[in-house]
Amino acid sequence: MNSLFRINEPTEANVNSFHEDGYIFFPDIFKDLSRESLIKEIENSNEVQQYLKSANYTDITNPQSYFVRPWNNRGPVGNALIDDPFITSLLRKTIGNHYHFCHSALNLAPRGIGPGKYHQDNHHWNHEYPVNHRERKKYYIQILYYPNGFKQGDRNLKVIPSSHVIEPTGEKIIEKMLAGTYDNIAGRKLKEVRLSAPAGSMVYINARMFHAIEAKPADSPQAHRIFNIDIFKEAGPPHRYTQKIPDVWLENTTSHRKQIFARLPYTDGCWKTLN
């Protein structure tokens, strides 16, 4: 299977960055044809075409982003991302062989859209059932794809490296984090890093790392920023949003796909029964 990416496996430095910083930034990692094909698949889909013609997109005085979760209507390139050889190698070298595909999402951010505050996305830290406490320290991985990229100050991602080692509890944690309260725990000065990503970039993160997004100016030279995401988790009980696998994904599929799809989906109240 040919990879969509320019490299076949992560370097030792990449793996170290994941464990020490909580993320790996891969600028311009898509092959040119892969990047161009993914953008076309996304922008030419019926759902996205309807959005691009709607007031939610064209009215910059009150813009609304396009967001769908799970992102099941994937073209050939989007579908291949799930078990691309590079992605499989990256997951295995950072979190081991026992993982599941959790869910996915697709987002288009138009001109004028506001910012997103700092947060972490391991939802087991936000709930108090016994299963949540058991699963909190297991890996929950977000793979953030930016087919058409972003620049600083224009719907860019920002992160706090090494914040994944701080337990995400208590009030005003971001203010305390940036004020140096947790520097001794992190073993470094915790500070904000604002990224700038050329088209075809990817950010691979431990979802416990705190991250945020900046606003997109109404006069941005980029009409919209495309963002698609695949989430993987250590093998085990459902995470929040663990999606039902579409039947078509299971037809004539590989043994590897069967393995990473072999888990229960999240349903309302399911954590209560996993005590």
Describe the protein.
The radius of gyration is 19 Å and the shape is globular. With 275 residues, it is α+β, with helices and mostly antiparallel strands. It has a single domain (12-274), classed as Sandwich (Jelly Rolls), CATH 2.60.120. It is built from ten helices and ten strands. The model has no long low-confidence stretch (mean pLDDT 96). Helices cover 26% and strands 20% of the residues.
Keywords for this entry:
275 residues, 6-stranded antiparallel β-sheet, globular, 10 strands, 10 helices, single chain, 4-stranded antiparallel β-sheet, alpha+beta, 26% helix, Jelly Rolls
In short:
The chain has 275 residues and is α+β, with helices and mostly antiparallel strands. The protein has helices spanning 12-21, 32-43, 46-52, 55-58, 76-80, 85-95, 130-135, 173-178, 183-186, 255-261; strands at 23-26, 66-68, 99-110, 116-119, 140-146, 157-159, 193-194, 201-206, 211-213, 224-234. It has a 6-stranded antiparallel beta sheet. It has a 4-stranded antiparallel beta sheet with strand order 4-9-6-7, with no helix packed on it.
Largest sheet, in brief, is:
6 strands, antiparallel
The fraction of residues assigned to DSSP E strands is 15-25%
| CATH fold name | Jelly Rolls
Please, what is the CATH homologous superfamily?
A: q2cbj1_9rhob like domain
Identify low-pLDDT runs.
none
Outline type: globular
Number of helices: 10
Report the CATH C-level class. Mainly Beta
Number of strands: 10
Query: How many domains would you count in the coordinates?
Result: 1
Spell the H/E element sequence. HEHHHEHHEEHEEHHEEEEH
Name given to the CATH architecture? Sandwich
Helicity, as a percent range: 25-40%
